[in-house]
Fold this protein.
Amino acid sequence: MQKNATTKGSFRHGHPLYLAILAVLGTPHSGALAQDPRPRPAASTEPVDTVVVTAQRRREPAREVPLSADVVRGEDLERSGYQSLGDLAALLPGVNYNEAGSGSGQSQVTMRGISTGAQVGATVSMYIDDVPFGSSSGYAGGGSSALDLGLFDLSAAEVLRGPQGTLYGAGAMGGLIKYVAAEPDPAERLANITTELSGSRNGKLSHVARAVLNLPLQDGKAALRATLYQREEGGLVRDSNHGNRIVDGAKIDGARVALLLTPTKNLSLRLTALSQKQQRDGSSTEDVSLTSGEPIDGRATKRLFLSEPVKINNELVSLAIKADLNWASLDAISGWQRSRNDGRADPSALYLPYLAPLGINAAGYGLDYSFSTRKFTQELRLTSPRSRSLEWLVGAFYTKEEGYKSQYLQAYNQQLQAVPPLLADARFPSSFRELAAFGTATYFINERTDMTLGVRRSRNSQQLEQRFDGLFAPAPQPAADSTEDVTTWMATARWRPAAGQALYLRAASGYRPGGPLPVVRNPINGEPLNQSSYASDSLWSYEAGWKGDLLPGKVSAELALYQINWKDMQVFTAYAGFSGIGNAGRARSRGIEATLRARPIPGVRIAAALSLINAELREDNPSLGGKAGERLPDTARVAGALQVERDFSIDGKHGYLGASLRYTGERWNSFQQSRSMLPYRLPAYTVLDLRGGLEFGHSNLGFFLRNVLDQRGQTSADTSLSTLGAPARVNLVPPRTLGVQLSYAFY
C-alpha cells in the first residue's frame, strides 16, 4: 500500500491525484459529473450565515457574535478522517497543538501566541458542552493535559479566540475549545455503524469502529442517545535499541450516553455520562539532531532504554436543566469529572552523563509520573429573552477540585530491574476552590448599534502539600495555602452599517489563578528566600473586526485585528536549589485573522483562512531565558488553510470530493537562552489532504488521503533531555495515510 500511494515529484494529467483535484475544482475534466442540488455542509468551517454558536452563552449566528469564532461540524471531521485534538487544531491557523513533554499523553493548546513554551497552567480552556474539563490549578498537570476527546458523534467543535474570562472563567486567556455533543432527538429513531481502516507509510494498519443509537422513548418528550467508539492506532515510530519494533501504538475506547427529558415545553433535562480510556505504547517522536534538524537514525526512529507507556482515563457525568420562566430562562449545569494520567518517561539520555561524575553508573533511568483530578462544578445562569432594547445575563459558578501529582525517578540495571539509589519520590496533593459571580448586559442604541458590558468577580483558595524522598529530595516543606480575588472585564461595541455587514470593537481580559508556594528559609537566620505564593497572570485583549457579505449568498468574509498585553506571566523558577513557580515580565501579541467562505456555483464550497501573529517578550526574562523582542515559543508568524469541496451525483447517488491545504510557518520550541529547554527551530511545512465519498441508499463509502505529498512537517519538539548532548525528540505530521470508511444507517 505504501508504494502505490507514493506521489513524489510532479504528476501527469492522467494521475489519479490530478484527476481528483480537477474534479474538486470543477474543471472541464469533471463535466460528466452532474451537480447535486441538495445543500451540503462545507468541508470544515461553515459559512457564517448558517453557523450557530454559544460563544456568549446564547445560541446565535456566528456572524452576530462580536469576536472571532470558528465552528467545525462533527460530521465533516469524521468523514475527513480527523479524529483527535491535534487534527482539529491543524485545521485552524493560529491555533497550536504541542505534544512535546516528558512523556507521551502530555499536550497543550495555545492560541494567538499566548505561550511560554513550558506552561505552568493551561491558557486555553476545554469544555464539554457547558462543563469546563480539566484542572484549573498549576499543580495537577493542567498545563500539559489538554483534553483530547474523540471527535465522534459531535454536533460541532466551537473554537473561540481571545480571552473569554468573563463568561468562561479561569484559564481562557488565549481562547476556548468546546466539544458540542449531538443531542438526543425525540422525533427520530436512528442507528448507525461505521468502520474505518487506514495505513500510513511504513506503519502498521489502524482501524476505527463506532456505533450511534438514537432512541425516542416518548414522542417529543424523551430520547436516549448512545455512542460507542474504539480507535486503534498501529503506530509507525521504531525503537533502534530494541529490534526496530514499533513503540507508539495506541488504543482508545470511548462511550457517551445522553438522556433528554422534556416533560413540558418550558422544561428540559439532559443527563450525560462520558468515558474515554487511552492506552499508548509511547509518544510518536523522532530523535533529531539539534543542529541539522535531520533524524539521527532515520525517519520515524528513536532510541529508548525503557518503554514509555501511558494510560489516560477521563470520565464525566453532567446534568443540564433548562427552564423557561417567561421573564428569563434558567440554566443549571452540574458536572462531576475524574481524570487520570499515568505514564513513564525515559530520561536516561539526560541522567546518564549527569550522574556518572557523581559515581552513579546505572544502565538507565525511568521517571514514573501521575496526574489526577477529581472535580465538581456547578453553574447557575439566568438569561433574558431576546430583545431589541436590553438583553442581560447573570450567573454564579462554583468548583471544587482535588488534584494529585507524583514523580518517581528510579535507576535500572541492564535487566530493567530497579536498583538503588532511589533518586526522587515526589508527591503533590492539592486542592482548589473557586466561587464566581458574573454578568453581561447589551444595550441596543438603535437598530444598527449596540454595546455590551460584562464583568466577573472570582475568589479562589488553594492548598498544596509536598512530600519528598530520595537522593534528590529537598528539605521537608510545610503545607502552603493561598487565597486570591480576581476581576475580569469585557466590553464590546457593534455597528451594522448595512444588511449583512457588521463592525465591532472588543476589549476583554483573562487570567490564570495564582497559587501557594512552600516557603524556603535561610538555614542561618530563618528568613524566607521566596514568596509564599505566586500571583495570577492576566492579559487585556483589544480587537477590531468586520464580518459581512462580499457577494450576498455567495461570498462572505471576516477580518479581525488584535493586540494582547500580557503581564505577570507565570513561569517556572529556581531559588536556593528549589524549583517552583513565579511571576516575571510582560509580553505582547499582535495579529490579524482573516477568513473567506464562498459558494461560487451550486455544490461547490471554498473556505480560506489566514493568521498573522507577532508575539514577543516586552522585557528580558532570566527565568525563561528570553530577551526583550524575542518571539514567544510555538508561535508561527504565518499560518493558513484552504479547503475546497464539491458535491456531485452519479446515477442519482450523491457524492463529494474535497481537498484541504494547510501551511504552518517556522517556530521555535523555546527561548534562545533557556537553561531547561534548548532552542530548536521547527521549519515551515505544507500539508495536502484529499477526501471523497459516495452514498448508496443507507450506506456510505468514503476515503481520505492525508499528507498526500508525504511532507515531513515538524509540529513540536522536546529538548528537556538535550542539555548534555541528547537529540531533540520531535513530533511529526503523520506520513502519507490512506483510509477507507464504510457506514450503514438503520432507520
Residues 1-49 have pLDDT under 50 and may be disordered.
